[in-house]
Amino acid sequence: MNIGIDKIGFYVPKDYIDIVELAKARDVDPNKFTIGIGQDKQAVPFPYQDAVTMAASSADSILTAEDKKDLGLLIVGTESSVDESKSTAAFLMDLLDLPEDIRSFEIKQACYGATAGLQTAYDFVSNNPGKKALVIATDIARYGIKTPGEVTQGAGSVAMIISQDPRVLKLDHKSVYMTRNVGDFWRPTFSKTAFARGKFSNEVYVDFFQTLWNKYQAKYDVTADDFSTMLFHIPYTKMGTKALRTLEGKVSDAKYAELTKHYQASIKFSRAVGNLYTGSLYLGLLSYLVNAAKAGEEVLFFSYGSGAVGELYSGQIQADFEKVIDKKALQKIIDDRQKMTIDDYERIYQVEYQDGTIVDPKTITEKFYLSEIKENERLYKKLK
Ligand code: HMG
Fold first, then answer.
1. What's this model's pTM, rounded to 2 decimal places?
2. How far is the CA of 257 from the centre of ligand 1 (A)?
3. Is 29 annotated as a binding residue?
4. Enzyme catalytic residues
5. Positions of the chain with pLDDT lower than 70, given as ranges
6. From the CA of 241, how far away is ligand 1's center (Å)?
């Protein structure tokens, strides 16, 4: 049975900061941020937005009544959840008008969560032919103002419907994975911002890619020549470049040039949005589908989540993908945003809603929003 991604959509907050302006405000050479880190813009969510509202928005962009009827599984991958007990998935039931007879839950393993969700969805569809699964990646990457990680922040969500006879990407059901107890990045439950050993996290990420690539080649008897594209987890776009560079001199010059060209197409959206944590790899897939993908291409995916879990798997871009991927509409989501000043970003960053907060709907510019915190319970609404 062919199983994979039948639809994919995303949501990004409508406001962003310019990375050159951020560099200037931090007294840093802008080239460090635009070339050394590889970012141009960073999405900034409003306080009435969170992992729940962004997940609802990305899913709402692809879900039809027909999809909802066939849905049997909903998985949300996130490391920015709003509740230590209730899953982000449960909040979505009302916001998305989903039927009750589905299994739903949340997965947390840093930026690996959505890939765990995707592979679980594969097994679900394979065991329940005709049923569909909705997998959502949703996160707000926060390191804090004036920290080294600030330039690698961002926010957004990617939603995917996994089904039989997928129109976007058929998963090959070939993968290798690994887990190691590593202290490269963590966020204790008391903290809204992450802690990272930045340079060390880079080393672990690259080491995981090399280890898994060696495993993948040995397990499936393939080489780089079997793939036209490699997509990477991209917390910031220089990161994937570092993993890709490990292949330079080990594959033919022509293959390396092709992989590099395709990688450039896959990072266009991330350069403009920033870090989506677990959605980053899948924002890369979207960017590639919009900017360069060809039907029939074999694509290798490197998923990495600090702590740390890594997985390398492959898939094939399907003949009908252009019928499902509205390139103009997706590009418009990126282009139609507005720039926020660094002062406003710093002001919004500090806002923390307390119990008793009621959000005035007149101030809302999004379809889904946090409307109230009552008895410490977060309540959400959808603008009609
Ligand atoms: P830093 O200390 O600010 O920067 O930290 P740096 O000194 O390492 O410089 C960065 C790059 O800019 C270097 O290039 C410099 O040479 C270059 P590289 O050696 O990396 O190729 N540079 C310049 N280039 C041009 N013109 C200039 C210039 N100056 C310097 N004038 C760091 C950067 C990314 C470490 C920091 O932002 C950080 O700690 N970020 C958070 C951690 C992170 O993103 N790690 C990524 C790997 S771990 C991961 O992927 C997991 C994650 O997604 C979390 C999860 O799984 O949930 C993060």
1. 0.97
2. 24
3. yes
4. 79, 111, 233
5. none
6. 12
